[in-house]
């Protein structure tokens, strides 16, 4: 045990150095350009901010529907209100050190409402994978071509990414890919027996999650800075991509540092420096506050008893 802890110290020091470096440069840019930021024309629009919170909550509803679809594909069907509470409460676990707390919380809470542990583990793993993959699929048109290269190429990139994502979910492909990844990190393989259409349906809900989440981010930006309607998809894609990179970054809690750094770089295409650094930090604060509000909303739903 002591040897294991000693091996972790260098990794923890590297993580701390990474986080310090990211936020040092972000806040340095903000401090150096504070005069330019103040002169940019910030405003406060409560209507747009309110719409952003509503869309964020809707995105969590789609996230819940995606997880609930996965659970029903492998085991019991849960009431929607129970599922919403489970998903929202478990999402707060990603703020704890180590990336296992959110999926572990989902497995534990699900077991309290009749979801077998084996099914919970499978759905937690698949949910994490689908969140990251669907985020990249959602932002693929902007990543590959951008909206300034023509709508035909943009649509083609989106359709190609959608086809690749749907193909990766096929029962002949996904179990092998997933178990190969689990073997690499020393985990036991999972036995996945599912209907293809169930996973496609679940993946559709995760894409809707990104659409609502990205829309909420755009309205959150509109609450403080001028944003034209033509930039909706690009800015929503930037949020989806930076969020997905944060999910994929297993070495930081809640993608801390990775999400902000990626957002600052990507937002630099649409806003003058040093505004992207400030907006990336603002985006993190907006997400955190919205997650807290969603948690309070989930507590208002009284969970239905488990069906006997």
Give a description of the structure.
- The protein is mostly helical.
- The chain has one domain (43-300).
- It has twelve helices and no strands.
- Helix 1 packs parallel to helix 11, helix 3 packs across helix 4 (80-91) and helix 11 (258-267) packs across helix 12.
- The longest helix has 31 residues, at 2-32.
- The N and C termini lie far apart (43 Å).
Q: What's this entry about, in short?
A:
With about 300 residues, the chain is an all-alpha fold. It has helices at about 1-30, 35-40, 45-75, 80-90, 100-110, 115-145, 150-170, 175-185, 195-220, 230-250, 260-265, 275-300.
What distance lies between the first and last C-alpha atoms, to the nearest angstrom? Answer: 43 Å
Number of domain units: 1
Approximate helicity band: over 70%
Query: What global shape is seen?
Result: globular
Descriptive terms for the model:
308 residues, 12 helices, mainly alpha
Write the layout of secondary structure elements.
Blueprint: H1 2-32, H2 34-39, H3 46-74, H4 80-91, H5 101-111, H6 117-144, H7 151-168, H8 174-184, H9 196-222, H10 232-248, H11 258-267, H12 275-300
Helix pairs in contact: 1-11, 1-12, 3-4, 3-6, 3-9, 3-12, 4-5, 4-12, 5-6, 6-7, 6-9, 6-10, 9-10, 10-11, 11-12
């Amino acid at each position: 045990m002591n040897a294991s802890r000693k091996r972790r110290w260098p990794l923890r020091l590297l993580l701390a150095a990474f986080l310090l470096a990211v936020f040092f440069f972000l806040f340095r840019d903000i401090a150096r350009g504070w005069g330019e930021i103040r002169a940019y024309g910030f405003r406060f629009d409560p209507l747009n901010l309110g719409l952003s919170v509503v869309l964020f909550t809707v995105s969590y509803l789609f996230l819940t529907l995606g997880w609930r679809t996965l659970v029903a594909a492998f085991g019991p069907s849960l009431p929607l209100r129970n599922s919403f509470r489970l998903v929202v409460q478990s999402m707060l676990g990603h703020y704890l050190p180590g990336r296992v707390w959110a999926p572990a919380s989902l497995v534990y809470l699900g077991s309290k409402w009749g979801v077998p542990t084996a099914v919970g583990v499978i759905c937690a793993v698949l949910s994490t994978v689908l969140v990251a993959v669907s985020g990249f699929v959602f932002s693929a048109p902007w990543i590959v071509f951008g909206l300034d290269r023509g709508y035909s190429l943009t649509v083609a990139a989106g359709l190609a990414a959608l086809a690749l994502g749907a193909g990766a979910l096929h029962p002949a492909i996904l179990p092998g890919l997933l178990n190969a990844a689990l073997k690499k990190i020393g985990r036991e393989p999972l036995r996945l027996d599912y209907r293809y259409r169930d996973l496609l349906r679940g993946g559709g809900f995760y894409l809707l999650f990104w659409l609502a989440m990205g829309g909420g981010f755009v309205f959150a930006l509109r609450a403080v800075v001028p944003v034209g309607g033509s930039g909706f998809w690009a800015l929503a894609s930037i949020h989806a991509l930076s969020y997905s990179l944060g999910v994929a970054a297993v070495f930081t809690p809640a993608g801390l540092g990775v999400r902000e750094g990626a957002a600052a770089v990507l937002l630099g295409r649409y806003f003058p420096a040093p505004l992207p650094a400030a907006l990336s930090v603002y985006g993190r604060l907006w997400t955190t506050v919205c997650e807290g509000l969603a948690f309070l909303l989930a507590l208002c739903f009284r969970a239905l008893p488990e069906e006997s």
